[in-house]
Structures are given as C-alpha cells and as structure tokens.
Task: structure prediction
Amino acid sequence: MQSEPKTMVDIPAILSPADIESWDREVDVAVVGQGVAGTCAALEAHRAGVDVLIIERASGGGGASGMSSGIFYLGGGTPVQQAAGYPDSADEMANFLMASCDPLDPNATRNFCNDSAAHFDWLEQQGVPFERSYFSGKAVYLLTSECLMWTGNEKTWPYNLAARPAPRGHKVAGTGENAGAEGMKPLLQRCVDEAIPAIYDSAVIALVQDSDGRIVGVRVKQTDGILHIKARNGVIIACGSHNLASDLLQEHLPLLSETSEPLAIPSNDGAGVRLGMSAGASTVAMDGVIPTASIYPPAQLIKGIIVNANGERFVAEDVYHGRLANFVMEQPGQTAYLIVDNDVFAYPEIPSAKHTLVDGWETIAEMEAGLNLPAGALVATMDEYNADAAAGLDRRFHKQADWLKPLDNGPYAAFDISFNKSTYLFITLGGIKTDTYGRALNLYAQPVPGLYVVGASAAHIPRTGKAYASGLSLGPGSYFGRRAGRHAAGADWG
Amino acid sequence: MQSEPKTMVDIPAILSPADIESWDREVDVAVVGQGVAGTCAALEAHRAGVDVLIIERASGGGGASGMSSGIFYLGGGTPVQQAAGYPDSADEMANFLMASCDPLDPNATRNFCNDSAAHFDWLEQQGVPFERSYFSGKAVYLLTSECLMWTGNEKTWPYNLAARPAPRGHKVAGTGENAGAEGMKPLLQRCVDEAIPAIYDSAVIALVQDSDGRIVGVRVKQTDGILHIKARNGVIIACGSHNLASDLLQEHLPLLSETSEPLAIPSNDGAGVRLGMSAGASTVAMDGVIPTASIYPPAQLIKGIIVNANGERFVAEDVYHGRLANFVMEQPGQTAYLIVDNDVFAYPEIPSAKHTLVDGWETIAEMEAGLNLPAGALVATMDEYNADAAAGLDRRFHKQADWLKPLDNGPYAAFDISFNKSTYLFITLGGIKTDTYGRALNLYAQPVPGLYVVGASAAHIPRTGKAYASGLSLGPGSYFGRRAGRHAAGADWG
Result:
C-alpha cells in the first residue's frame, strides 16, 4: 500500500507575542497591500478615526489592480447604467449572482448588490473616473474609453431566465491597457492627501497571534532588517492572488498547462493565502480559475461551433469567454476546435491567444477526417446543430438565437483553440474564506479574531471560471475592502 | 517555514503482468461488485456475448443498492409520469440537470436524459417492479409503495425557470425500507437465470496494468488465498462509495461532524476510488456530499424560516432537503435554527434527525435573546421576511409562494437543526471521473484503457449535495452500468 502523493505547500509559521522582543511600531489597523482592496480598506479605517499603517511589498501602491483593465462589476442602477438606458436593480443583480454563482455566503453577495450603486458613487467621489458611455460590442479588453460593457453570462442560458440581463462591467475611463492605473491613481492620491502612513518595500512575512487566537501584529521584512508592528484592532490582508504560486497551483490546479499564462505581478505568490492559513483561516475554491483565450472579437465567430476530440459540442458558444475556456480546459486531452463555414469565417483577433487555423475543407466529412475525429461524430454533431439552428433554437446547449445560423455554406475551416496549445491567460479565484465584513473565517466559518482578508487574497464570489464575470475582482475587492476597514476601525457599516 | 499538513490516503499498488506468476482464470470482462451498476453491467456484457465474471466482496449480491430506498431518477416521459399526468421530455429533463448540476460532461448527462424513458422500460423488462402511482406529499423515505415522487429541486428557484418541473423519482414498488431490495432481487435473479458466473466473498485488492497502460486483470483476495483473474476486454469497477473511508473523508470532507452518519454498507470503504486511482484515473468532486436531516415531514414546517448564528436566513426553506443540509453544514459554527410561529408549529417527524425543540417565546425579540443571536438581527430578518411573505414573494431567496406566510402569530418556537447537533445522514458524491461509456478517465479526461468505473465508485452527475436529487445514484448508476457493460463487450450502444 502506498500513499497518495501530495505537493507540499509552504505556510509561514505563526508567531506568538513571546516571540517578539519589542514592537517597533504600534497602530490600530495594519493594512497589508495597497491594491484596490487594501487602499479602500485603509481609507475607510483612517476616516473612521483610527491609526492606520499601510505595508506594501512593492516600492509604490497600485498592485495588480493598477495593472488590470480596470473593470468593476457593479449594478443595481448606477448612473452609468441609467445613462445607457439599462434598468437594473439590486434584486436583479442579486438574482443573477445567486443563480450563476450559488455563492457560499448569499448574504454577503446580497449586501454587495444592495450597496452596489452607492459603492459606485463612492468610487467616483474618490476621483475614480467613469464615463457615462456604453460599449455594445463583444470585447475582452477595450482599447477605447467607454465605461459600461457586458462582462459575464448575463444574457446566456439559464441565467437570462433568473434575472433580467443588464451590463454591469464598469470600466474606468482609459483604455484597457491603462484603465486599472487610471483607477488606482486617485485612490492612491487620497491616501497621500489624507496622510495615511505607508511603508514600502516591506513584506509581511508572518502574523502574530496571541493565546486567545487573536491576530495582534505582523513581522515585516525590509531590505535592511526586520520590523514588528503591533496592530491593536487587527490586520487586514489585501496582498493579492496566488497566480504565481507554483506549489498552490500544482496542488489545486493541475489542469493548467504549459501554455497557460498568469495575469499577475511578481508579488502574486500567494502570500495572503499563506498568511491566512498560518492563522487557522480556511480556504475556499482553490481549484477555481478563470482562464481565457477568447474566440471573439470578431463577434461573428460566436456563430461557429466548438467541438472536442470526440467531435461533440460541449458548451454554448455564446457564453462568456471564461466559462467557455473553463469547459475547454476539461475536455478530453484539453483539445477543442472552433469550426466555421464560409459565411462566418474570420481570424480571431486576440493575438495573445495564439489560436491557429488548422485548415479548410470542402465538406464536414473531410474536416472530420482531417481533424482525426471519430468517424461520423462531427457529421452527426453538425446535422443536429444545423437542424436546430434552422429552427432558431439550440436544444442541447441553449445558445441564444442571435448567434444561431446553420453552418452549411462551405468551405469549412477549423481553428485549434485547445487549452494546451493556445495561450490561455488565467486568474485564480480561490483564497481565504471570509464573511461580509471581510473577516477571515476558520473551517467552521467562525472569525479568526483580528484578521481580515480582502481582494484577491480572499476567495471570490464565483468559485469557478464558469461563473466569473469580469469586474468581480475589483468590484467586490473594493467593496469588501471598505467594509473590512470600517469593521476593523470599530465603525458600523452604512 | 512549515508545510501544509496532509492526510495520507491509502492507494493499492498497481501490478504489472510480470508480477503475476500465472492467471487462475481468464474472462473477457470482470465486473467488480454486484450492486445495481455492476449487475446491469454484467447483464449487458453477458448478453452481448462475452465471458463475464462478477467478483463480489459480500456473500451475495445487492450491495448498498439493495439497502437503499430504491429510488431511480428517470424521466423524459416514462409510463409512470404519463399515468400520473406529468408531461416530461428528454429536453426538459436535460434542462433541469444542466441548470442545477452544470455537469462536467454535459453530453453524458444528455445521453442519460435522452435514453431515460427507454431505460425505465428496460428495468421493468428485467422485472424491477414499479407501480403506476404518484405520491403528492413531501417525504424523504416513503413507507408506502407509490412510485413517482418529487425528489429534487425541480420546483425551486431558479431551476423551475430553466425547465418545466416534473417529478422524476421512480421508487421501486415496496416501502422505503425495502424498496431497494425489491429492485435488486429481480436483477440478481436474472444473473442466476442467465448463468452469469459470479464469485462471492472475493475482494479485488489490486489491478494489473500492462506496459501500454491497459488494465488487463485483477488480484482477488479470498478467505483461503489469492486469485489472479485476467480480463481480456477490461475491468468494470462497480464497488460502491467511500462513505466509510475515514482517510478520504478527512482529506476531502472535513466539515462532516461527529454527529454525521454515513448511509453505507461495510464495503463502502472507497475500494473503487482507490483502485481507479492506482491505475491513474482521476477523481472528481471528492468534496461533494449530500447530507440530510430533513425538516419535513410535516410539510407545514417549510413555512417556517431557518436562520444561522448571525440571525440571517441563508437558503430558501423549500429547497430539497439535501440542498438545505449542505447550506446548514457551511454556516458559522454549523449552527442553524428552524423558527415557526403558532400557526406552523409541529414537531419534525424524522426521528433519526434528532432535531430538538429549543424553547418557545412570546416575541421574536425574546427568541433572539434566548438563542443568543446578535441584537436586532433576528427581528430584522423576520421583519423583511414577513413583509415579503405578506406580498407573496421572497426577494432574498425565492421561496415559492405556496410556502410563504408571515410568521406573526406568536408564540414562536425554535428547533435546533445544527449540523453538529442533529444527526445528518450522508452519501459521498465524488469518485472516479468517467465518460458516457463509463470509461475511467485520467486527469486530462482521456480513457485509461480497459478500465470502467460505474455506480458510486464514479463521480455522480451532481457534484454537490446542493444539486442532488434522490435517485441520481441508482438512475445513472444503472444506466452507465449498462453502457459500460456494452462497451466492454465491444458492442455499440442503442
């Protein structure tokens, strides 16, 4: 008898107050990381009147948020939604997230929705710029400055039945390449203007936990030595994802491939998850990931079909790119082909995806042979799809009518969009289990006293990429960051 | 730096043909386990004309299927559904399972639905008795012999939007205590009548894999020694769940409590999962479980509300008992209370659940104090719920109107239904990853040649108890058992 082989995951040792000779500094609230979640937490705690210290590993604030495309998932009737003529309500937003994410903490999700429009206003009040404009197309990264866009599965079955679809991706004014930075600049400036103390080039490498289990401080590593900082009220961990943590990825995400590329900054090594675990906090959804190598733009490619190595479709092709990619990842051999006819043919426009044209064929039967699919499989798939499409429906996967047309005008072409051949960018979705106050929870969902985890160090609302909508990092990250800041300062919410 | 502590899981060593001095017996297909999945597999393989051997650990067939309450989840317009006046179709059944389970292999699920009514007919042809009758109430174990009953979340939001609700639990004629046995008897008799060879008191303790990765035989332990059996076409593992596998439960289901009780027979020690893993097959949903300690019958209790230790509701109270229990398991401290007013008051009727009456109070404010809930929390929850219920809706959790009434006629009572205090029975849902032919799949969803895994040794269609419907063990177990039998015999399906 042998044992199941296991990857070893590094977790820092927890310290006790007896390990600390003397505290180098004492504050009320220590905020670890100055991305969007940490910045919002620091602003709220500071404004509630307590002593805050931001501790950031990099030489300046911004984090992965500042490198992102700056999309906040918000709704419930924001001014942008109103200007674009898309009615929305907290109930509709909650219905969508409840149906698509089946969230672990439905009440935290509901609070996020109830407060979402007000949270948008707050972001604007801090100076985060949002246009009153709408982008109607299908894009992954928007290279123009429009604000509102569809960034999830709102219009796809069965979620379109559970909630009236509304676009909820709110992009900071700026192009997809610098919108995240444009969003972080005013937030960071507020920290400066309000003189919130911050130390940079400073990595928190351990937590200090007293005999009652309360987190009372941190150990900080700087170039020239070690600091110990006491945090009378608590520590807010907001130091990002584990997108670069090879041990955690191997343990929990073995389906990532050699061609998968993390969307990450160098500090996304899982420090936040590890610090949380060191204090007895529990993790959630560590096998969750949103991968993406979108087939669109151009949108017309959505009218193609996607099949696996068995020649079978496996997902509605009009779902959000992260949902589609998650299904591709799970197919036999991680193989998938995008198949189009002459009417639909176009090259996928996201060059980083590296989708390649396999070949063109006069008939589906020839393509089936050319792709080495099982005899008759692709022909049967196409026959069923075309018959349904001609009738304006897709009984098997419920692709919406807008994207349905019989693929019957040859020649036909196939793009290889296999998970292990194309370049799928990814973001991990797992992290520390938390509640609506951003408090870190143990296995039994009870708070670890004095410890908060927000942003990408905490588990996202969606636990798989199948349920992810772009903006569900910055949106909840900033919102629960604020709530953690208020709570750690001893202030009520709302 | 320390490492994450890990439970060690026992997996048998894989054997190579060189380890086998001589084969004691040679067959075409070896079927490991004679529950419903293995029996169906053996019948189909035998009838396709190949040499089959059933290898069963117990002294006779039946397995956990024979100890079960005998519910098969089937639909698509079975004769029982027709007789009861419930129209159903393969499309509606697939829509429900797609929306509620978001299955890993949507095409396997679709095949199960497409063939479901025909599979019902096949079961009847083997002699499995089903009445043409319908039970309209809310029950967990039916102590009468009616066939058709609601056994899942078909009528609850949002799944009721994705598919026209239909009852699909088909219970074998017999009471809930012996229906499983009544279902297995004719199937086992068929094996005898058709002279399918079987050996009992025989445990498969290892698989034999050749240098190409193909499974070519098994090692069998009997009281008086060891046998090696060569399986020319392949081995079908159908030896049940890991409900009693303490190592696997500790590793994957740490939320199970001291008061959780497995629904299991002694051989449910995870042998099937372990054998599959030994050959390189991958596991799915090992953190999936359906726990149950239903609050109904009587159905009127569904009109109560259920709150956690924060005084918040967290689930629609009219969901299926397994979904409700899964949410209870995840609440802070695993604590939950069922709260009723004087109109709704009744004692839960399932004695094994051990739900206890905490106390009665004249007002909600007094109950809040009596249950040690946060000040104001229960009053706020009740105010919101009662206002919505008076308007015939439940905006937060979408409990259906049939079960809504303002809880405003004191006195009020609370039952403690906490996961770690009541007795929640459970069934594990995880297992080996398989395809529509019952073939065992490796991490990349590619078949391990010669190896099939069906029944509770394979992962269920629903990956969490939140999505489970009773009958999704015997229904797919028997269906994919048949498919594996045909495939291993080299015969087409359908």
About this structure: The longest helix of chain B spans residues 179-193. The first strand of chain B starts at residue 2 and ends at 3. The radius of gyration of chain B is 24 Å.
